[in-house]
Amino acid sequence: QVGYRLKPQRRGELLSELGIESSDVIIEINGIKLDAQKNALSALQQLSTAKNLDLVVKRNGAEIPLNISLQ
Questions:
Q1: pLDDT in tens for each of the 71 residues of the chain?
Q2: Is 39 exposed, middle or buried (0-12, 13-18, 19+ CB in 10 A)?
Q3: 3-state secondary structure at position 35
Q4: 3-state SS class at 39
Q5: Rounded Cα–Cα distance for residues 41 and 64 (Å)
Q6: Which of 35, 54, 57, 69 makes an SS bond possible with 24, Cβ 3.0 to 4.6 Å?
Q7: Burial, 43: exposed, middle or buried (Cβ in 10 Å; 0-12, 13-18, 19+)?
Q8: What is the rounded distance in angstroms from the CA atom of residue 69 to the CA atom of residue 71?
Q9: Are the CB atoms for 24 and 61 separated by under 8 Å?
């Protein structure tokens, strides 16, 4: 499976508030598919100036779009 799963070290309330569930796998960030490590690095670099975060997560086999404001 391609993508990244977030594992909170402490309480996972923040992720839950953002609409991210513990079983979600992030497969796309702001239009960049996370199908290669270089793409993930590119997406992370873009986040430093992003005002919104458009994610696509895989949840129970379905692709779910999420939009998170970073302001």
A1: 588 888 776 767 888 888 898 889 999 999 999 998 889 888 888 888 889 999 999 999 999 999 999 87
A2: middle
A3: coil
A4: helix
A5: 22
A6: 57
A7: buried
A8: 6
A9: no
